[in-house]
Each structure stands twice: as C-alpha cells, then as structure tokens.
Amino acid sequence: MIAYVGIGANLGDARANVADALGRLAALDGSRLLAQSSAWRTAPIDSSGDDYINAVACIDTDLSAQALLAALQAIELAHGRERPYRNAPRTLDLDILLYNDERIDTASLQVPHPRMIERAFVLVPLLEIAPDIEVPGSGPARDYLAAVAGQAIERLN
Asked: Cα–Cα–Cα angle for 127, 135, 38, nearest 5°?
C-alpha cells in the first residue's frame, strides 16, 4: 500500500523532530520510504504557539491502515506528544493523509484526512512529491491550491 503521511511539529526542536520522524518512518517494519518533501514553515491554523515545521512522506507499507496509525502514534509518543485539547501545540503530529485510494471512516481514522485539501501545509509539500496525486472523493489535489493561497508557507530546505 502507498501511504502519504503528514508530519508537523511546533514545540521543542521542531525541525529535529520532523527529521527524526522521517527517519523513523523509513525504519518502520514492512515499510519503505519512497519520497519526502522539503521542510516547510507555516503559522498555526486552528492552533496556537510557535510556527510549525511541516513535511509529507510517501511510504510503501505492508501495514494495514490501523496498524500504520498505531505505529505513527507510537512515534508521536516517543517524542512526548500530549493531547491536552484539540489542536494543541505539539512536539510531533503524524497523520495518514492518503492510503492508496481507500476511503476510511472509523472512530479512530479518517482517510483521506478530512482537512487536507483546506491546508497549504499539507497540499504544498504533498504536491512537491506527488504533483499529479488525486484525493479520493475530491479529485486532483492541485485543484485546491487556489483556496489555500492566502495561507503563508515557506520552504526551509
């Protein structure tokens, strides 16, 4: 299965946390890192605190979507992720954006990620590594760039 994972952090050494998360994704059992975007800086949206560092990774994985979610949450916990309230600042946030062309809607997981087409910090890095990607049920991801054009985003590397 090809999965796209959104990565973000705005507490502690956010750049180091994002870089470490990419390394941990590359080392997941039954998975292989296929591509990673540049690191991008964005202001918080529906959140607070310092600017976020964001990236998107593409992995080929044998893990089920639920097993991948569990693995991502374990990586977050290793970085001291706490969830005191919705959209709280975070040391590390990992989200399954896409999982092949599947549509998943359970209590613990929604794929495609429900707000991905509303966020420049997802679309810009995603389109950097997959310019022709389609979002199941929504169409080409690039069609949503105009709607997020007012969200500031800066490439760091």
From this structure: 20
Asked if 83 is an active-site residue, the reply is no
Q: Read off the DSSP letter of residue 28.
A: S
Q: Which of 95, 105, 115, 132 is catalytic?
A: 95
Catalytic residue among 90, 103, 105, 143: 90
Given a cut of 80, whether residue 57 has pLDDT beyond it is yes
Q: Which residue in 24, 29, 41, 93 is the catalytic one?
A: 93
Q: What is the pTM of this model?
A: 0.94
Nearest C-alpha neighbor of 38 from the set 132, 131, 126, 143: 126
What are the angstrom distances between the C-alpha of 71 and each of 14, 21, 31, 61, 152?
20, 11, 11, 12, 31
Q: What is the pLDDT of residues 94-145, one digit of tens each?
A: 999 999 999 999 999 999 999 999 999 999 999 999 999 999 999 999 999 9
Instruction: Name the amino acid, one letter, at 156.
Output: L
93 labelled catalytic: yes
Bridge partners for 104 per DSSP: 111
